[in-house]
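Fold it.
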Amino acid sequence: MLRRRILPHAIYFFVFWPIGSALFAVLAIREQSVMKNATATNVLLGTLAGTAHLLPEFLWCALLLTAITVSVFTAMHVGAA
């Protein structure tokens, strides 16, 4: 039962959260006045480099957030039963 709870949380925090952060970073960078003349390729490459640089933080945060959310939802399920 615990494995069934861990997998969706882990997929979200380890996969969707970093990808979503990178995509929204591209949109945020494009809105900066300094980056108006930059090509989309340059903005995307810069964002990917920044995401690669932050990869250890993404992994530690994803591990921590997965552990916290799984514990909270498990406690809520046990408390409700």
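The mean pLDDT is 89.
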